[in-house]
Automatic annotation (TrEMBL):
Alphabetical list of HAMAP family matching this protein: UPF0215
Family: Belongs to the UPF0215 family.
Name under which the protein is recorded: UPF0215 protein HLRTI_000325
Pfam families xrefs: Endo_dU (PF01949)
Amino acid sequence: MKSGVRALGVAESYTGDSSTLAGAVVRASRVTDGFVFGSCAVGGSDATDAIVEMVDRLDRPDVRLLLVAGIAPAWFNVIDLHRIHDETGLPVLSITFEESEGLEPTLREEFSGEALAWRLDTYRAQPERERVSVDDETVFVRSVGCDAGEAREVVRAFTPEGGRPEPLRVARLAARAADGAFDSAKR
């Protein structure tokens, strides 16, 4: 992958009723050259809209890929990867860092009625996770808009060390810092 290829990584940090979303534009060469912030409701249904709006507001035609930390940020605010891809035109990769049996059992424990139904429908519509080895780590990747081989290449190209792709590592740091700043401002 060329060193100038840019990916937008989106990660979250939350306290209270809202989650701070941060997007970091990072080149494959590991240079960070942009940020965008948003928010979504904890336990809500607006994470997909928030991410699409962040991409629109960022307005960076040089961004070629979108990496999202997880599939259900902000306490099961399930993300629709297909809709994000359709609305942004970007290949979308959801990356998780722990092996699991999936979210369905936990969703059934925590939600009921319509809140459960839309989460299950959205979750089930997403592609299956694929195990990807990066250095001595393993991540789990869902991809829309690129095939499994391309997704593996992207993850490896953007992960200089450890198991967290650089756009997601930087976005997570930015989300935590912004979340802390917002909390301090509320006091």
